[in-house]
Design a protein that fits this description.
Layout: H1 2-26, H2 29-51, H3 61-77, E1 83-86, E2 91-96, H4 100-103, H5 115-132, E3 137-142, E4 149-155
Antiparallel strand pairs: 1-2, 2-4, 3-4
Amino acid sequence: MADEALFLLLHNEMVAGLYRAAEQGEGENGRCTTKLESMGFRVGQGLIERFTKDTARFKDELDIMKFICKDFWTTVFRKQIDNLRTNHQGIYVLQDNKFRLLTQISAGKQYLEHAPKYLAFTCGLIRGGLSNLGIKSIVTAEVSSMPACKFQVMIQKM
């Protein structure tokens, strides 16, 4: 429980620190999102490497996505993804109905516009994990009502 609180505090401070620096003229908001996504990418690569070192090879893309939704998500966020959907053509939608990184700011609709900056790190986390498993992807996030969110993963064929 303490490690979860530390992770949430660290994440909130990373977001706040980057955007505070941008407001003081040290960067642009778009660059902040890119920096957060890049940090998440590197962390995702490292975590997947650690989590899969004793795991058998995955059969296919869907098997990898199931691993991300169950094992990876549970280790990082202490719960599984609530819903995984696919069109079987390289697009997957991961839905989390109570996303931990949004629960702190989900008190009202006025914070809905700030939600994307709290999701950039996680988009990178997913993309980095998939990258280390040999899947090149584009990951975007969408929030319609907080704290629920959807991550759309588009697999890029190599």
